[in-house]
From TrEMBL:
SMART domains: AAA (SM00382). This is Vitamin B12 import ATP-binding protein BtuD. GO terms for molecular function: ATP binding; ATP hydrolysis activity. The gene is btuD_23. Pfam families: ABC_tran (PF00005), oligo_HPY (PF08352). Keywords: ATP-binding, Nucleotide-binding, Transport. Residues 43-283 form the ABC transporter domain.
Length: 381
């Protein structure tokens, strides 16, 4: 495991030097891929006859590939579509269009029984270890849910398997009969991890799995996930706000903006040489150790709010906030492709990528923002 690059936030205390990245993941051994995935949420109005009046473009044409045994990190501001994409990939949301191939099968076309079988191979771990556990049920029965749903083991056999899972994730198997409230936040997330592992999945989608935890506990859960990956050969999609955590756990990282992937590359490559102005802005803020200062820097570089996903901007949807925007960016959507001089798996959706050493302008952003300043009459000197 490489050290954290200079300037990034320190890792949560206790994050141990990691195990090797799974370089053994063959370059083309793709476990899951998304092709042109679109997910719109209709907005309806009307009292008796509800009529669609608009659509939230939550995910709007995403292509990605995740190789067996690797971790793909996904970052992006709130509302950029990360969770929606995760739910599409796990089959929890039907897609509006596009394909999701899991071991070569398009899961968007699966029948009910096909989908049930697919759900054994793909699990999710959610942000909120409190909200995702029923407080009135004992943890043994919560962790054993997947066995019950899939009719796999029962009675003493199920209990034995559940206790093995508890041991695997560092919980005391004797606490089988306890309720979630009797566990700490970190332990509750371990319960979620145990439940996700029950059916020996191939892919686990982790949606902000440590965001709700104290920093010191975050480290333990991240280390657990990494150890389990090595031990069980798991593949992860790992969504998080904390860019340093994403860098630590990921082999490759995709940056989402308003429902699209703006850039994707090997983690080191992306963090060292971001090419998309949005990635560069996010990372420049993350490289400042003081969180308040970093937030301020992010606000300066990324002037303005994220535009509404109901009516995303034309062309490159980052253009109203981009310090490098030109006329072409308003008219023409940039393709997510390899740009001159970049590695074969470094893709950037930008007409004017950031060049090495280039510093993004702080004072100017976008080209089509309507000025809210009143126009002042010219005064003769
Ligand atoms: N069920 C839904 N119905 C309508 N709109 C939705 C639904 N789920 C998500 N959205 C909208 O889709 C967009 C993307 O949301 P999503 O939760 O995927 O973003 P996110 O990147 O995961 O954000 P965060 O970092 O805050 O978790 C947002 O504008 C959100 O309001
Ligand atoms: S295409 Fe234009 S607006 Fe979009 S990121 Fe690149 S320079 Fe900025
Ligand atoms: Mg989310």
């Amino acid at each position: 495991m490489s050290e954290l690059p200079e300037g990034l936030h320190a890792l949560p205390e206790g994050l141990h030097a990691a195990t090797a990245r799974p370089a053994e993941a063959a370059q083309d051994d793709v476990l899951v891929s998304a092709e042109g995935v679109v997910k719109y949420f209709p907005i309806k109005q009307g009292i008796v006859f509800k009529k669609e009046v608009a659509r939230v473009h939550a995910v709007d044409g995403v292509d990605l590939r995740v190789r067996r045994g690797e971790t793909l990190g996904i970052v992006g501001e709130s509302g950029s579509g990360k969770s929606t994409l995760a739910r599409c990939i796990t089959g929890l949301h039907p897609v509006t269009s596009g394909r999701i191939l899991f071991e070569g099968t398009d899961i968007t076309k699966l029948s009910k029984s096909g989908l049930k079988a697919f759900r054994r191979d793909v699990q999710m771990i959610f942000q909120d270890p409190y909200g995702s556990l029923n407080p009135r049920r004992r943890v043994g029965s919560i962790i054993g849910d997947p066995f019950a749903i899939h009719n796999i083991a029962d009675g003493a056999d199920r209990k034995k398997r559940v206790q093995e899972l508890m041991e695997l994730v560092g919980l005391n198997p004797e606490h089988y009969n306890r309720f979630p409230a009797e566990f700490s936040g970190g332990q509750r997330q371990r319960i979620g991890v145990a439940r996700a592992l029950a059916l020996k999945p191939k892919l686990i989608v982790c949606d902000e799995p440590v965001s709700a935890l104290d920093v010191s506990i975050q480290a333990q859960v991240i280390n657990l996930l990494k150890d389990l990956q090595d031990e069980l050969g798991l593949t992860y999609i790992f969504i998080a706000h904390d860019l340093s955590v994403v860098r630590y756990v990921s082999d490759r990282v995709g940056v989402m903006y308003l429902g699209r992937i703006g850039e994707s590359a090997a983690a080191e490559e992306l963090y060292e040489r971001p090419r998309h102005p949005y990635s560069a802005a996010l990372l420049s803020a993350a490289s400042i150790a003081d969180p308040d200062e970093a937030e301020r820097a992010e606000r300066i570089v990324l002037i303005g709010d994220v535009p509404s996903p109901i009516d995303p901007p034309s062309g490159c949807r980052f253009h109203p906030r981009c310090p490098k925007a030109q006329e072409r960016c308003v008219a023409e959507e940039p393709a997510l492709v390899v740009r001159d001089g970049d590695a074969a798996d470094h893709l950037t959706a930008c007409h004017f990528p950031v060049e090495p050493g280039e510093v993004l302008a702080h004072e100017h952003a976008g080209i089509s923002q309507v000025s809210t300043e009143p126009e002042l009459p010219e005064v003769e000197q």
